[in-house]
Design goal:
By secondary structure, this protein is of the alpha+beta class. The chain has ten helices and ten strands.
Amino acid sequence: MEKSEYYGPMAARRRNPDLSRQLLAQLQWVELHLNSQASLAGSDETDPGTSDWWTKATVRVLPDEDEADGVEPWYEVEGTALSTKRLDEESIDVTIFEANGLTIDLQHVEDVHDALDARSEDYAKFIPLFGGRDQFGFVTLRADLEDQIESLGTHVVIIDRVQLAPAWRGLGGVGRLLTARLLRWVCADPRLVAVLPFPIDLDRALLKDDSVFEPALEQVRRTWAALGFRPDTGRLWVMDPSDGTHQNAVTQIEKTLDL
């Protein structure tokens, strides 16, 4: 599910210091693009109390003298981009990060169980987070989880999938910062943020190899823990937006990256 970007073959390769410096220099030009979709009426997947969202981080670049001199631009180096798109004759959009997920409005969702189950088997795994309804008609969190969360918001944000271009990993928390920044905009009235950590970079054969899968999974979980997430029921991890651990982590990453 979450399927995270924070593990992969590129992360273990010998890093090129010059390339790392070039990538870090691009951070000031990174832009976040967010889109969301919600139905006016319906049920299950079109439950009006749910909103699917997608986001990406891009860098807009212009051809420069290096290209004219035959020097390979940073965004053409293997692993530096998830995709590139020419915008016009003078500029190229380089996508370095993508994520998607679902926001659930506890006040207005009609049937949270059906809304999750109708989307996918992966989304259905988040059903154990929820309980019944309170005296005001709001959907509640599971009783024991309800007692642990201090945030008073009405939105539960589920992070489905996160992916960062491999060359940007291991630079001091670029992927974590982008994830935190997207949450700043997706979490309008947050009650809880949830994720199901999983190493999506592993192919089917490696997923069956415990000697590879287990360390990869542990690395992904450490990354989410570094953003204030903690284990919940099953393989789910959750974060209380009112817990200072998350904001403290983000502040430290910003300091590390000089942003």
